[in-house]
Write a structure and sequence with these properties.
With about 425 residues, the protein is an alpha+beta fold. The protein is built from 14 helices and nine strands. Strands 1, 2, 3, 4, 7, 8 and 9 form a seven-stranded mixed β-sheet that branches. A hairpin with a 5-residue loop joins strand 3 and strand 4 (about 45-55). Helix 6 (about 225-240) packs antiparallel against helix 10 (about 285-305) and helix 10 packs across helix 11 (about 305-330). The longest helix has 22 residues, at about 285-305. It is elongated and about 80 Å long.
């Protein structure tokens, strides 16, 4: 590509070479943000996103004269964007974090002034991701009505090296997967006939019990509260999507504006965040995983508790989980229904130790629920998961489960859905 004015006339691609250009360092757009990461949310990333207008030549700089000191008269063809980042401890005090951010801002400003923006091999057009969203927020400070700005990042390595070692790792992963499948094939099959003789049940009876429980509720008549909860979560997600906030993931600052749980704001009087945060999700996969987990526990628990007790359990466990989150994390943005869902699993696990669930159904329910609880708690040790909310919701659910057992006037086992377990097949 000869100059930036030709970019819209080019066939849509991800990579560009640009021969003639001028990077305007005097009319930049800036957006400052933070991200929290690490196994126990111990790392706070300070990020400054900078967007520079790309012009054909320096003479075009006069076209960017400002209007009311805030917006340009014309918009650039494209923007060259950079991300400056520094990691600090998230356990620092608010004053220490402010000092760190001011220092980082000064260092970044000096680094920006000394940077030669004309040194790049090719330009990478950024698709929809968190960086692009941050660059767009920066650009919106200059152009509030810009529809589809072209976002580019400079790449200083050879074009042939753009994929790094991805291909090697793809084949290595395929090889590991093939080896695992080979081992599974070589393992002798379980002698189900012998098992049936010794233990009196078929190997697949527990899974058929679960299947019958699911199909019994295909009309959703007995899980109406769950359907409403899922609909509310999906509705909030769709509103965020159509508002242009993302699909795969959402920016933490947008989530904070919409009601995410965050200790400094929550304890400052915004206690409603304890509730609103359980209807927000970080992205599509986060929403999908939580709704699947909710549905699995609902098919057993909602018919057992009844609509009112079930709804109360969900909301109370969700609020308690949010409270546990801000008690444990001093400055973490927390969202998601997983704390409330873990609470429902806690209620179900508590009732599994009582006589309110038929004996024939306890094993099949336990096989479904216990691994899900264990996996969720295990994933919390690898970061990105609010284990404080999970544990808080689970403990609250266990206490509520025993509360329902002693004072909740639950139905007898013969009248509840747990009794749909199949009959043991002893005579095959």
């Amino acid at each position: 590509m000869q100059n930036i004015s030709e970019i819209n006339g080019q066939s849509l691609t991800k990579y560009y070479e640009l021969k003639e250009h001028f990077i305007d360092k005097w009319h930049i757009a800036v957006y400052r943000r933070t991200e929290i990461s690490g196994r126990n949310n111990e790392t706070l990333s300070l990020i400054i996103d900078v967007a520079c207008p790309i012009l054909e030549r320096q003479e075009n700089l006069g076209d960017l004269t400002k209007l009311n000191n805030t917006q340009y008269v014309i918009s650039p063809k494209a923007w060259l964007c950079y991300e400056f980042k520094k990691n600090i401890s998230n356990h620092l005090s608010d004053d220490e974090k402010n000092i760190e951010f001011k220092t980082f801002d000064t260092v970044t400003n000096n680094e920006f002034k000394e940077k030669n923006f004309d040194e790049f091999v090719y330009l990478d057009r950024i698709g929809k991701n968190d960086r692009r969203n941050a660059y767009l927020k920066a650009i919106s400070t200059k152009f509030s009505d810009l529809e589809k700005p072209i976002i580019l990042e400079a790449v200083n390595k050879p074009f042939e090296a753009r994929n790094g070692e991805k291909l090697k790792w793809i084949f290595l992963s395929m090889g590991i997967g093939a080896a695992v499948w080979l081992l599974m094939i070589c393992i002798p099959k379980i002698n189900t006939v012998e098992m049936r003789k010794r233990e009196g049940y078929t190997f697949s009876s527990d899974w058929r019990t679960f299947y019958q429980s699911v199909t019994k509720f295909k009309s959703f008549g007995n899980i109406q509260i769950t359907v409403i909860i899922i609909a509310l979560n999906v509705l909030v997600f769709l509103v965020m999507v159509f508002a242009g906030l993302g699909v795969i993931s959402f920016d933490s600052h947008d989530l904070l504006k919409l009601g995410a749980n965050f200790r400094p704001k929550t304890i400052d009087g915004e206690w409603w965040r304890l509730l609103t945060s359980i209807f927000l999700h970080a992205g599509l996969m986060h929403l999908f995983a939580n709704m699947v987990g909710l549905f699995l526990v609902a098919i057993f628990l909602e018919p057992l508790l009844g609509r009112l007790k079930y709804a109360v359990a969900y909301l109370i466990c969700g609020v308690v989980a949010s409270g546990a989150s801000i008690l444990w994390h001093p400055a973490t943005i927390s969202i998601g229904a997983s704390g409330a869902i873990m609470g429902l699993y806690g209620v179900l696990l508590a009732l599994l130790t009582t006589n309110k669930i038929h004996t024939n159904a306890k094993r099949s329910i336990l096989i479904i629920t216990l691994p899900l609880v264990a996996i969720n708690l295990f994933l919390g040790f690898f970061g990105g998961v609010d284990n404080a909310a999970h544990v808080g919701g689970l403990l609250c659910g266990l206490l509520m489960g025993y509360g329902f057992y002693f004072w909740g006037d639950l139905p007898e086992p013969k009248t509840q859905i747990a009794h749909v377990s199949i009959k043991e097949n002893h005579d095959k």
